[in-house]
Predict the structure.
Amino acid sequence: MLEIIFTVLVLLFMFRVIRIAVRASWGLLSVLLFIVFFPGLLMSLAFAGMIILALPLLLIGGTVALFTPA
């Protein structure tokens, strides 16, 4: 009986830790995407001569950043 209770509690603990880890890694991934990847993409598009693509993306990203709460 104690083994079953122990197993259930360990599984609950394990799933909660996994859930916290997924949330933390998703937060880290979104920060990396918006701080590193998106500006890097815009700069590489501008340096490659595709300013016609980089400018609308920058305008869309700027407006979304302006109107969404921090």
The longest helix spans residues 2-47. Residues 18 and 67 are 33 Å apart (CA to CA).
